[in-house]
Amino acid sequence: MIRYTMRRLVAAIPTLLVVSVLIFVLIRMIPGNPALVMLGDDATSTEIAAMEKRLGIDQPLFVQFVRWGANMLRGDLGNSIYYRIPVTQVIFSHLEPTLLLVLYSTIIFMLLGVPLGITAAVHRNGFIDRFCMTVSMLGLSMPGFWLGLTLVIFFSVRLDIFPSVGYVMIREGGLLESLKYLTLPALAMGLQRSASIARVTRSSMLEVLGNDYIRTARAKGMIERRIIGLHALKNAANQILTQAGISIAHIMGGSVVIENVFNIPGIGRLAFDSIIRRDYPAIQGHIIFVAAVYVFVNLAVDLLYKFFDPRVEYK
What we know:
- The structure is a single chain.
- The protein is mainly alpha-helical.
- It has 14 helices and no strands.
- The chain folds into two domains: about 1-85, no CATH class; about 95-205 and about 235-265, MetI-like (MetI-like fold).
- Helix 1 runs antiparallel to helix 14.
- The longest helix has about 40 residues, at about 225-260.
- The protein is globular.
């Protein structure tokens, strides 16, 4: 397993390299000049040229990329143009709300999606099955930002149960207070992703429930709850786990919209603000960080396969 993990990590290097090249080129195609954004519209051409030289963006793109790439290989993502501190420090200062939001959303979509899919599979082609799949289809059809705004209107404006916007750091208000602020955005993201989990769970369970060992267990008189929980779900877990990994990566990447809707100071909001400010190093650092998260989530999912299915071999 260690050899397999090392091979996967080495194989991820070309992926991150391609991502770094694309993001470096694409963000420089966005109209706007970081020096002009920092100095304002009243700045003279001399002042703009001096600021470009100080920021290092007056050099050819190839020279800029080589310098940035060499620093990145040493773990240095450069300094943020807006914050004027290392990008890694900026990212980690905004990481807590995003990380907590991803974990909270994951718990929600797993607790909702898996039981919904199991229920639909057990009652195949019945009213309950059609109802569960209709609910999951509605979840897939609703945009996250629209669902978030709907939850705000209902739970914040009308019922006044949860805060509508903002976030309180754990060190300031405690974990429960932080979760209170993240409940609505986590619900918005979790409800949407639970639909895909439910559909994958249903299809996986239907495939497993048709196997001979399930019929044998029923013939031996084993109770249905034990068959579903001990035999069927465990053997269907790998496909569910794969979809869960995709959902976690989707939530991490889609946090930009939700964090802006709920005014959460996470790395998604940081990416949005960095684009507005033309903060090239911060944008590049955010994309590289999210790409690395994608890689490690996929690796973690692959390594967890053996936990649910001992027949899996890593070569």
